[in-house]
Amino acid sequence: MDEFKMRIMPRMSNPILGSGRIARRCLVKKYKKEKSHSEKLHDSLFKRINTIPNPISKKPVKKQIKFPTLTSKIIFNYWNNLGHPFVRHQPIKSKVTSKGIERIEKAVKKYGKEKVINSIAIAEKVFNSGWFRWRLAIGYQKVSLPEFFLYSSESYKAYNKKIKNLPNSWFEECRKGYDYMEKKYSVVKTDKFPHITEKLESIWMEYSGLNTELRNKEQLKSIAGILEAFCEANKFDWLTIVDVMDGMLNRWKNYKPKHLGYMSNEIFWKETLPREIVRFGLVDQEFKWNR
Hints:
Helix content is 53%, strand content 3%. It has helices at 37-50, 70-80, 95-111, 113-127, 135-141, 145-149, 153-162, 170-174, 178-185, 194-208, 214-234, 238-250, 266-279, and strands at 4-8, 25-29.
């Protein structure tokens, strides 16, 4: 109440509230002297100085890469657009990117631009193939640009504990071609029933019109094993079941599988094939299947 003062109003002849005998009180704002122009200017300057924020420490701006040639820039950008499992490098100057570009330049001088790009393209196809034995391991650890051309001794020792017989350079391996990579790094199964596999392969080639690739051969080995177990359980001759499958693929218009996976799942062996055997008249409807 220090900045206010009290004033007693005189009694009114015609009081509005009450009888008029009680003295009315009201608060009157204390008079303040208006400041001069110089005082206002001083206050505004003082307020502005106090509201200036503290300078923020800025991080040093990282330098962009200076590519020695247009070819190295093209290959660097091609690498960055591949995706998993290849590490995407920022176009900023660092030890990793500098080493990667240096190795690109050496490879281009030795083998040429197209062979370097072709090797990277083969690696991308191999690393994402289902037959590649280290697909999960490579996908987990990923591959940087310098490591693709040559692993350092430290990283090679660390990776070789998880992946046995890891090559020193994926670039050099992929440069030998896709077929070489498929033969060397695929998960090859032992063919226990080569006579059945050979017959299934000829049926599939007739149906698809294509030569059987190595990954399909591995799947045909699995199908041959399932077929042998199916025949043994239900007392069928394997040639009879192969003939039924031949009819389904090459003479039955309603059965058009897109890949060999259709003949390796449970539905084919528990429902589709038994139904077709009954339709061929080899057994009756009441036949008890051992599945």
